[in-house]
Here is the input.
Amino acid sequence: MQWKCWYNTDAMNLARQIEQYIPRQLLELVRDISGQAAKQGQRVYLVGGVVRDLLLGDPSLRSGPRFDLDLVVEGDAVKLAQQVAETSQAKLLAHHRFGTAKLRYDNFTLDLATARKETYAKPGALPTVTPGTLKDDLVRRDFSINAMAISLALNDYGKLVDPYQGKNDLEHRRIRILHPESFSDDATRILRAVRYEQRLCFELEAQTVELLKRDIPMLDTISGDRIRHELELILKEKRPEFVIKRLAGLGVLPRISPSLKGNGWIAEKFDRARRLKKPAQLPSLYFCLLIYSFSERGIEQFLARFNISAKLSRAMRDTLRLKTKLSLLDKSSLKPSEIYYLLREYEPVAIQANAIASEPSMAHRHLQLFLTKLRYVRTPLDGEELKRLGISAGPEMGKVLQVLHKAKLDGEVRTKADEKKLALSLAPKLKWQGR
Ligand code: CTP
Here is the structure.
């Protein structure tokens, strides 16, 4: 991958890049916030991923349709955000305890945080937060490339603040933690390190790899929700299989779940999934493929440990349940209606996962047939029309609708007239059966 890198220029001022890449409306707002802060003797900085991506010359790396910016305030971020919310259309969400506030606009989000120091009482615990300087705020961060800031103050607008050589690490394309306890303080950084490494085609710096491996057991100190969130972020990457493979190579994957695999099978199936599905639908499909080789016990442990949502749990369980039933679909003699009634109880994403995971076979073809055609088949006759034909609402009508649907699936009726004829022929029989 080729990046157009600004860091090769001598300039330590990124005003031009800011103007070029940040949407005008958002930039005006950010400048206005900085102006309001200045009146109170406070300074505001752009921080985190956006600084990294501006230096890389490609803020389109910012994932998702919304443009989100992180701002650090040397001062009181919550108070500042409250002032801004009063004079703009923003929705405000403040966390007084952490000194942070979120301002939500239609097309973007601003996260304001009071510059802070963090200490961890024990590994994996939430940090204890006290106000600090910008430098304190940067050193508490995950990697040097994410620990840079850009000043938004009028007197040095655009100036890069880089106390931990993040720019140098960008130049050398490496991911480096800022202190030896970084991974044990917050082991989600193990997953984040590999995600950035693979996204940017960088490499983990040698000592960072050592410490990462040392601290793999610290993943056990992290709540299921936080690990799941990181897994979701991985599965939103353009090529999540690279991240999964690397996590496997580093020995991280078994610590998350002993049955997870990062092999060529996953890579091939993820690639196929991408060719079939829109990006928004991919993460749940990837999850179903990830657990394809799990046992029933393994999946239950996984769902419980990572507090997976009810909908996704259903899809993942259905994936494995359907896998054990594929032999029923592996018969050429099956009628379309039989395929439909075998598959209709499963979540579509579970059927899709099985279609991707299964090798070319009759079962595979039947899964595809269901996904592309059978599940959309409807009969044009509805309840009202059946009533007009003299069929009364209730079980009788239910049966007629089912027979019509089956006939439609099997191509036995084609037109509305065919359906009416079939419905009328059925009505007396049903009455007779009901007696
Ligand atoms: N951060 C951190 N440790 C974490 C999570 C986040 O230090 N466990 C810091 C990093 O400085 C990071 C910033 O918070 O840059 C914002 O985090 P996030 O929004 O998750 O990532 P971005 O850097 O914006 O990167 P991207 O959205 O491109 O993944």
Residues 48-49, 62-63, 70, 141-142, 146, 186, 188-189, 192 surround cytidine-5'-triphosphate (CB under 6 Å). Residues 1-11 have pLDDT under 50 and may be disordered. The first strand starts at residue 43 and ends at 47. The two ends are 74 Å apart (CA to CA).
